[in-house]
Amino acid sequence: MAVETTESIITTGPEHPQESISDALAELATRARRSVVEVRGRGRGAGSGVLWSIDGRVLTNHHVVVGTGGRPTVHFEDGRQLAGEVIAQNPALDLALLQLEASDLPAIPAGDSRQLRVGDLVFAVGHPWGHRYVLTAGIVSGLGRTGVLRGGRQADYIRSDVPLAPGNSGGPLLNARGEVIGINSMIFGGDLSIAVPSHVVLD
């Protein structure tokens, strides 16, 4: 078994393969935490977001910013809080783009979600039930087009068995390289997670 990361390919060698994989996943989680934010509005619950560019753009779900007056507060792992401005929205895909007055931010690179396969290992980072920076893992269980996204629009989707909960919305779905290959959007039946693929975001 091999797990690829952005810096190297980690393989199960003859000595302590479990430790190698564990170290790789811990490093992936550490890197991702720096690029995942919490998105809050006044008197509202929190959602998640991901730093999409180094010049202060944050991608999240549309439903996370509804009712924030277009000015949600973005919380960083290091304790910083910055005012965000909603500069683009797509309710049908449940996506929103925020702009922060900041630069040199640790954005996560986008991966090519068109290369995903059923069975690929994926990870989510977010803030379920108010618990910050929770990492969960699973596999891609389905790929295709569906009308289940908000607005009933037919769109590509990634289905996975990654455990999600309220507060994960808008956070990244990562591949084993630590690249963003989806934005977590919906949960059905407690065990069916839907993410908007990165290629849909980029299109």
Question: What's the gist of this structure?
Answer:
13% of the residues lie in helices and 40% in strands. The chain has helices spanning 17-33, 62-65, 198-202, and strands at residues 2-4, 9-11, 36-40, 47-51, 57-60, 73-75, 81-90, 95-100, 121-126, 134-146, 155-160, 172-174, 180-188, 192-197. Strand 12 and strand 13 (180-188) form a beta hairpin.
Q: What can you tell me about this protein's structure?
A:
- 13% of the residues lie in helices and 40% in strands.
- With 203 residues, it is mainly beta.
- The protein has a six-stranded antiparallel barrel.
- The N terminus is likely disordered.
Binned, the helix content reads: 10-25%
Order of helices and strands: EEHEEEHEEEEEEEEEH
How do the strands line up in the largest sheet? Answer: 3-4-5-8-7-6
Mean pLDDT over the residues: 86
List the helices and strands and how they pair.
Blueprint: E1 2-4, E2 9-11, H1 17-33, E3 36-40, E4 47-51, E5 57-60, H2 62-65, E6 73-75, E7 81-90, E8 95-100, E9 121-126, E10 134-146, E11 155-160, E12 172-174, E13 180-188, E14 192-197, H3 198-202
Features:
six-stranded antiparallel β-barrel, disordered N terminus, globular, 14 strands, 203 residues, mainly beta, six-stranded antiparallel beta barrel
